[in-house]
């Protein structure tokens, strides 16, 4: 028996080699990791939404895909045309208010703002402003890159969905090739990861719903208008673990300042802080641990470490990756057997 034949028959060593190759390829493609993960997430959500609808309504998959993606584009159009102009107008109003105060400090009787103005006058902030401008430019570039990744991922996901049957038939050809063992092991790992990712996505969905309900109720008590559009924005951002709640405070603070001044800004920041702490220390560990059967301590430590290593994406894929390794190392098997890759393709 040749060395190659022995290697192929040694399933444990063979799968370790395949996993190492996959990790190495992902490392080489790390500049595209955002688009890869977004494409996976969009496709995963679309597949399960179609499957859920077909459980109640026997509608062909192609028609459902066209309807779902058309509705998504329509809702994005509504948000851009209705919500973004309001946010831009309120941002300009806030900027004009700050400029008016700075140009007319003697006409303002707010002692706190007077102290801030006096500090700005005594401080040499030229270097800080220049650094801030360059940092803002980098943020704008990052946002533009992220927007392009979102658009491309959405398009790739759409093409995958409308050609789901053809994708399945073509992909199965690799399982019958001369290197069938390699692609069978890739299929094995992909099946494991899809299962774990499905469990975590379900948990994050429940967290997003709870965050949205709590925050929207608080906004209604404060006196915010445009609650439906704000609730949609909060829900979308809440799908990003931990960081989404923090990001949402930026537009909410702008709107709060234009509606009620600095007092409403303080109120909304207090609400965001409470919701953030509630998600970080209660919802995230509790929901994640209940869905993945991990101890809360392990869940919380994984979130901290993965955020340090991979940033925001670490918060999203940290738990699935950890659970994935638990399963392939035979430490703890995945119980969600109904989440199969066959359904995905």
TrEMBL record:
Subcellular localization: Membrane
UniProt-recorded name of the protein: Membrane protein
Pfam assignment, any one: AI-2E_transport
GO BP annotations listed: transmembrane transport
Keywords: Membrane, Transmembrane, Transmembrane helix
Record-stated family: Belongs to the autoinducer-2 exporter (AI-2E) (TC 2.A.86) family.
Membrane topology recorded in Swiss-Prot or TrEMBL: Multi-pass membrane protein
Classification of source organism: Bacteria, Bacillati, Bacillota, Bacilli, Lactobacillales
Species this protein is from: Candidatus Enterococcus dunnyi
Record-level GO cellular component terms: membrane
Transmembrane regions: 16-47, 59-80, 143-162, 205-224, 230-253, 265-284, 296-326
The keyword Transmembrane helix belongs to this UniProt entry's keyword annotation: yes
Chief location category: membrane
Top-rank taxon: Bacteria
């Amino acid at each position: 028996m040749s060395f190659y034949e022995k290697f192929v028959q040694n399933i444990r060593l063979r799968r370790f080699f395949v996993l190492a190759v996959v990790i190495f390829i992902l490392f080489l493609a790390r500049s595209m990791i955002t688009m890869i993960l977004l494409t996976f997430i969009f496709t995963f959500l679309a597949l399960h939404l179609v499957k859920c609808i077909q459980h109640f309504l026997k509608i062909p998959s192609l028609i459902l895909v066209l309807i779902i993606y058309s509705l998504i584009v329509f809702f994005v159009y509504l948000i851009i045309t209705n919500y973004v102009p309001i946010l831009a107008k309120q941002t300009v109003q806030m900027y004009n208010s700050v400029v008016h105060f700075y140009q007319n400090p003697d006409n303002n009787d707010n002692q706190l703002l007077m102290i801030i103005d006096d500090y700005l006058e005594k401080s040499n902030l030229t270097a800080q402003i220049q650094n801030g401008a360059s940092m803002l430019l980098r943020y704008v570039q990052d946002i533009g890159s992220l927007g392009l990744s979102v658009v491309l991922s959405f398009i790739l996901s759409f093409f995958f969905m409308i050609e789901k049957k053809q994708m399945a038939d073509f992909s199965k050809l690799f399982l019958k090739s001369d290197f069938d063992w390699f692609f069978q092991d890739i299929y094995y790992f992909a099946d494991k990861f899809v299962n774990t990712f499905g469990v975590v996505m379900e948990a994050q969905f429940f967290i997003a719903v709870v965050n949205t309900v709590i925050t929207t109720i608080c906004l209604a008590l404060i006196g915010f208008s445009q609650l439906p559009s704000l609730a949609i924005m909060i829900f979308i951002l809440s799908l990003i673990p931990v960081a989404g709640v923090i990001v949402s405070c930026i537009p909410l603070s702008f709107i709060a300042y234009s509606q009620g001044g600095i007092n409403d800004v303080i109120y909304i920041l207090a609400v965001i802080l409470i919701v953030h702490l509630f998600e970080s220390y209660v919802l995230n560990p509790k929901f994640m641990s209940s869905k993945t059967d991990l101890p809360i301590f392990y869940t919380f430590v994984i979130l901290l470490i993965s955020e340090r290593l991979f940033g925001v994406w670490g918060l999203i894929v940290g738990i699935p990756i950890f659970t994935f390794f638990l399963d392939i190392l035979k430490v703890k098997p995945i119980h969600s057997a109904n989440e199969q890759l066959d359904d995905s393709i």
